[in-house]
Design brief:
Elements: H1 25-47, H2 53-56, E1 95-104, E2 125-127, E3 136-141, E4 147-154, E5 162-167, H3 168-173, E6 182-189, E7 202-209, H4 212-225, E8 230-236, E9 239-245, H5 251-259, E10 267-272
Parallel strand pairs: 1-5, 2-4
Antiparallel strand pairs: 1-6, 2-5, 3-4, 3-6, 7-9, 7-10, 8-9
Length: about 270
């Protein structure tokens, strides 16, 4: 069969005025495929619109300004006021001393003190080597700033480098109890009834000896050396002591005796008896 083109006839699908057909069958198939692909692509884009990441990102807060930062100012440290002096005492101290203080309680509790009273660790008292018995002192702990008024009723401390022994109650009052030893200021006040520094009676005390035989031996040696003095040996809560009571119990005589005694294993102290 001869194709129509070959005889000049028109193809049934040809457009008027054209000698070639407008669209071949295989062309139609290709066009339909492209149209379908374009439609599918367009639907896909419409179903998943483009996201603007800059518009949807969370907004971060601005960094804090240094002016907005608040600084914590610590509260100023206030030192406690010193304990007031009783009205029976004069306002100004007659002497001031700074040194190490300790405290004592057991085994001295309920024992006789130097003033003849029974030591009570719960009373506000203190022991000093040279202040007159009965002197009132204001003791201030340098570290804590706390102070207490106490009465000198005993002698001590008999430890090198310490100036005062407080009762247990007095030590707790100034915060010295837990530390055990601390630097203090000792202010002595005179009574309105008289002077706080009457003429003193002095002695020399040597110790402490753990073995009582050592104390007895020293007592016998000192008796032969200081024939006019009264030399005694006595036991204390912490050991044994030797005491020399000069015939003239003034400060100068006692100091001269103390300076003449040199023992490698015992300390010599100048002690006031009254």
């Amino acid at each position: 069969m001869i194709p129509l083109e070959k005889i000049g006839g028109a193809h049934p699908l040809a457009s008027p005025g054209h000698s070639r057909p407008f669209l071949q069958p295989h062309h139609l198939t290709l066009a339909a495929f492209l149209l379908l692909l374009l439609f599918a692509t367009g639907c896909h884009k419409n179903s998943h619109p483009q996201v603007d990441t800059y518009a949807t990102a969370p907004t971060l807060p601005p960094p804090p300004s240094h002016h907005a930062a608040t600084t914590h100012t610590p509260a100023p440290i206030t030192r406690p006021e010193p304990s007031p002096i009783p009205d029976s005492l004069h306002g100004k101290p007659i002497s001031t001393e700074i040194g190490l203080a300790s405290w004592y309680g057991p085994p001295y509790h309920h024992r006789q003190a130097a003033d003849g009273s029974i030591f009570d660790e719960n009373a506000l008292t203190a022991a000093h080597r040279t202040l007159p018995i009965g002197t009132m002192v204001r003791v201030t702990d340098i570290a804590t700033g706390q102070s207490v008024v106490a009465k000198i009723t005993d002698r001590g401390p008999f430890v090198q480098g310490r100036v005062l022994d407080l009762s247990l109650a007095a030590a707790k009052a100034i915060g010295l109890y837990r530390a055990g030893v601390d630097k203090v200021k000792v202010e002595a006040f005179s009574s309105s009834q008289g002077t706080a520094d009457p003429e003193g009676r002095w002695c020399v005390q040597i110790g402490v000896f753990i073995d009582p035989a050592d104390a007895i031996q020293l007592k016998n040696d000192l008796k032969s050396r200081f024939t006019t003095a009264k030399v005694i040996e006595f036991a204390g809560p912490t050991g044994h002591w030797v005491r020399i009571n000069p015939a003239s119990p003034d400060h100068a005589t006692a100091e001269r005796i103390s300076n003449s005694i040199h023992l490698p294993d015992a300390d010599s102290y100048l002690i006031r008896l009254n």
